[in-house]
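User: Good morning. I'm curious how guanosine-5'-monophosphate would be positioned relative to this chain. Could you predict the structure with it bound?
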Amino acid sequence: MQKGALLYEGKAKRLYATEDANLLISEFKDDLTAFNGAKKAQEQGKGALNNKISAELFKLLEANGVPTHFVSLLDENHMLHKKAKMIMIEVIVRNIATGSLSKNLGITEGTVLPFTLVEFDYKNDALGDPKLNDQHCLILNLVQDQSELEMLRTLARKVNDILRPYFAKKGLNLVDFKLEFGRDAQGNILLADEISPDNCRFWDMTTGEKMDKDRFRQGLGGLKVAYEQVLERIMGEDK
Ligand code: 5GP
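Assistant: Good morning! Here's the predicted structure, ligand included:
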C-alpha cells in the first residue's frame, strides 16, 4: 500500500491517503511535544518505537474484542489503518493519581484510586484540552447522544481491564492513559490514534521509575531507553 496525499499533520503523526478510500496511513514522527506544544524536541527512533508498541497493543485489544482502526504495520514508521471520523473527545483512564488529577484536585501523587476513573477532555488545542462533563459533550455535539458517551466509557474500561493485568505481568504499572475514538464508514465506533508511552503512563513495578513521556515533560532524560524497555517487555516473556 503506497502513501498518497498528505491529509493532515499533527504533533506526533502525519496522516496520508491511500488508493483505498477506507484506509489511511499514519507516519509516526520523532517529534516530542508537551504542555500543549509549548515544549518541543526530537528523539530519533521515537516514532518507530511508538508505531511498533501501538501495533502490538492494537492487536492485543482486537483479539480481546475491542474494535480498533488497526490494519497492519507497514514498516518502521508507518501503520495502515481504517479511516475513521474522529470523535473530538480525549478519553482519559486513571488507576493511580498523578499529573493533572493530582494538580487539579490535590490528590497525593501515587494514590491508588478506589476505582478506575474515566474522564473526558475536549480535544481542542486552542482551548488547551479543557475537562468536559456529559452535558458539555452533548451541547458541543461531540457525540450523537448519551448512549455514545456510555459506550466510550465502557470501551475505555474494557481497554483498561485488558491492558492493566497485561502490563502487570511485564512488571509495569499502567498508571493512566488517553484514548481517542472514531467512527468508520458504517458508523461503528473504533479505537483509533495510538497507544504508546506518549499517551500512557507506565511506572516500573519494582523501582517506580517512569517509563513514558513524563521523562520528557519533567526533563528526566533517558526517554528512548525507557520506550525501548516498554517495547522489549511487550515482545518478551511475562515476568
Ligand atoms: P494528565 O491529564 O494527567 O496530563 O494526563 C493523563 C494521561 O493522559 C497521561 O497518560 C497522558 O499521557 C495522557 N494525555 C492526556 N492528554 C494528552 C494529550 O493531549 N496528548 C497526549 N499524548 N497524551 C495525553
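Residues 85-222 form a domain with the D-amino Acid Aminotransferase; Chain A, domain 1 fold (CATH 3.30.470.20). The two ends are 37 Å apart (CA to CA).
Let me know if you'd like a different ligand tried.
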